[in-house]
Request: fold
Amino acid sequence: MCAVGVVDDLPAAVRHIERYGSSHTEAIVTSDERAAARFVDSIDSSTVIVNASTRFADGGELGLGAEIGVSTTRLHAYGPMGAEELTTTKFVVLGEGQVRT
Reply:
């Protein structure tokens, strides 16, 4: 799924993502560093990307080794759970227009 929108301001971007986002990977293209920081803090997704291709949202690109599965839910473990299974990670990718080839 891909939901792209050009919006007038940061609150509109956050509303767009809250309505159409996947909670997996969300991205912003901006030259405003303060807006980028507020975006990272406001978006509740596993990977938040600033000024780089969303193709960097990959286990291998994030240093996790080969990606063998993807979960878009918060709790993916089944059965007994300890602290590790109850912890989620938010990755932040900061770029300057990079693309992945």
Remarks:
- The first helix runs from residue 10 to 20.
